[in-house]
Amino acid sequence: MTRQVLLGIDIGTTATKAVLLDAERGIVAEASAAAGLSSPRATWAEADAEQWWDNVGAVSRRCLREAGVEARAVAAVGVSGMVPTLALLDEGGRVLRPSIQQNDARAVDEIAEFEAATDAAEVLARTGSAVTQQSIGPKLRWLRRHVPQAMDAARAVVGSYDFAVQRLTGERSCERNWALESGLFDLRREAWDPQLLALAGIEPELLGPVRWPAEVAGEVTASAAAHTGLAVGTPVVAGSADHVASAFSAGLHAPGDLLVKLGGAGDVLASLDAAVVDPRLFLDYHVIPGKFLLNGCMAASGSLIEWFRRELAGGEALDRLDAQAAETPPGADGLVLLPYFLGEKTPINDPLARGALVGLTLSHTRGHVMRAVLEGIAYGFAHHLEVLAECGVRPPRARVTNGGARSTLWKQVTADVLGIPLEVVAGHPGSSLGAAFVAGKGVGVFAEWAEIERFVRIAHTVEPDRECQDRYRALYRVYRELYARNRDLLAALASGGDAGA
Q1: I need a labelling partner for 424 at 20 to 30 A (CA). Which of 1, 275, 430, 491 fits?
Q2: What CA–CA distance (Å, rounded) separates 239 from 241?
Q3: Strand partners, 81
Q4: Residue 397: which domain range?
């Protein structure tokens, strides 16, 4: 029997998702299992890697059962996930402590130490990224300082999807976008950077062999088969960073193609045919060899909306909050929000930034605040487009995906603030589709990368409301000035935090 079914798994911030992709029929099953994010201290973001593995087993079995597919029909498995997360494993592959997530901002002192010990321009040229709160090196240095027992016991440093690949196959693997976004990888030499590894306090042996996304990393072991319901010997590819897989499965491949992801963290990705390096953005390898993605990532977007809903809106349903926000005018009657609730990654790279809601009066309602939250996130996206333009990338339109794409208001506010049409990708399952296709490409189920177009459909296009443009342009300038003028005050507010394990 020719095997034509692919399993794609995505380890996300709030859920682990999976799809079964039939090469002829498209997606034949989907499954999801909730995942948790913990913030035990200000600016910390952690997760339980063992929960990821539990979820991998649950969603794999659910997809096979829903589709009525036998395990031996699965041709290959691909895994995507958040990047660059940081988990420590001991000699037996056991998790030593909670994973430090990509938007964690605890390593402020260690970032400063990295900056003091290196030349910023040279590090940027070598690695493609500035030293920021996302960088793995300062976090490893923080762990060495505050949790030395865990670092002493560590025999592997892995990301989210590399962890899943290792559990599935028993083989070490490091997909090259984790390597690149770690800030420890020399882009020019395509090898780990000795100076930066030394500053991080680790040996290269703790990092797995660097692989291309479609490269087969190993086969499903007997223990992983018992956990997931998959067949022993099923090939598993190295996989992909979640945002890279999502961009590919939304159809980004031509130079200048743009994706806006309305997810827990907000992403902006532009497809390029050659690497472009800017300290305000991240650089990624595309899943298609020879191409790149210029990437901006906000630390909190959908997670900020969920925080507002849970903590300040009494758990109100999101559609009700959307309706209340829609009743307020563009600009929320003078409210402007800074969305830096977990510090901020791109484009300001400031772990000491903090959220702010400015312009409140007694006439403002919950609907005004909800609209200000949506607009503040959109201003963050606009800041990224401004930086992209300075890099020579000026897309006339963008595609939009992820959970926020289900919100009519969030999409409209984003289109209005950015001033470009947003093409809504229909039924987009996100990174799991990209992971499944990459697995298929790795084992020859798909011959060409362009075959992904068979699984991409545009539902409709959200056109910007030109009558809002002047108002939003004025408030965007206020947004930019609020941070610029108050940066030192925000850092002073952040200085009350402490460090610990």
Answers
A1: 275
A2: 7
A3: 11, 241
A4: 298-427+464-494
